[in-house]
Amino acid sequence: MDLDDLFLYFVKRFEALPQPRSVAEAGITPDELRALILWFSALWGRPRMWCEDTFQTALPDQIHASRQEMFGALLLILATELCRANSNEDAVWPAVTTVLKADTVSFP
Predict the structure, then answer these.
(1) What are the phi and psi torsion angles at 53 (to 5°)?
(2) Domain count, the chain
(3) What does the pLDDT look like over 83-96, one tens digit per residue?
């Protein structure tokens, strides 16, 4: 699944929520979290390009977002769910970096 498709999948999940929205309210399922983990583990350098791309593009349903915004949103969803499941207040980022380390090109 590419960045745009994955981002749009989660946008639809969040659009159904009342405002303000939170990742906890979205109720990310274990299957969705596993899919995010697999996706983040096999990016092979693309995040570096995405993080520098601030140009917003038109997506379906009149949504506009840059690759930087899309990647950032997905990273926040991943980090939130990993921390909820695998960490405590003293050790938040180790839970996230264990997943990101699988892509040694993007996250050396």
Answers:
(1) -95, 100
(2) 1
(3) 888 777 667 677 77
